[in-house]
Amino acid sequence: MIMLKDNHIWAKGSITAAVKAAKSVGGFALKVEVECQTEEEADEAIAAGADVVMLDNFTGDGIRVAAKSLRDRWKGTREFLIESSGGLTEDNVRGYICNDIDIISTSVPHVDFSLKIEHGTEVPAT
């Protein structure tokens, strides 16, 4: 599977361009998953051919509304999976479960670090 996160999308310029590039590298054998912060981003990912849309950092109510809306809007036109992710734990996961979600990613204790690239920041020469 190829997972496209915000840095990949930023580097390619759009969700559509990132999915196209991932599909060209991965071919038919690998699924492409796109991290989406909004329902509009999920629509773009689905239209571009993503196999999995990860709805990241939604509230429990927000994820249920967005997942149902996506299912209804794309019914009969595209097949895709919906993943709920971002801050889900053993204690709060029940609030995120619904029939329109296929995958639930929960968090476990971990070291949190980021490899984000700052937009417009030049890297100093070494």
List the helices and strands and how they pair.
Blueprint: E1 2-4, H1 6-12, H2 15-26, E2 32-36, H3 39-48, E3 52-56, H4 60-74, E4 81-85, E5 103-104
Parallel strand pairs: 1-2, 2-3, 3-4, 4-5
Description:
Strands 1-2-3-4-5 form a five-stranded parallel sheet. The longest helix has 15 residues, at 60-74. It contains four helices and five strands. The protein has helices spanning 6-12, 15-26, 39-48, 60-74; strands at residues 2-4, 32-36, 52-56, 81-85, 103-104. The protein has one domain (2-104): Aldolase class I (TIM Barrel). The chain is 35% helix and 16% strand. The chain has 126 residues and is α/β, with parallel strands linked by helices.
Question: What's the short version?
Answer:
The chain has helices at residues 6-12, 15-26, 39-48, 60-74; strands at 2-4, 32-36, 52-56, 81-85, 103-104. The chain has 126 residues and is α/β, with parallel strands linked by helices. It has one domain: TIM Barrel, CATH 3.20.20.70.
Number of domains: 1
CATH class: Alpha Beta
Please name the CATH architecture.
Alpha-Beta Barrel
- Give the class from helix and strand content and strand pairing: alpha/beta
Function: Involved in the catabolism of quinolinic acid (QA).
Protein name: Nicotinate-nucleotide pyrophosphorylase [carboxylating]
Enzyme class: transferase
InterPro entries: Aldolase_TIM (IPR013785), NadC/ModD (IPR027277), Nicotinate_pribotase-like_C (IPR036068), Quinolinate_PRibosylTrfase_C (IPR002638)
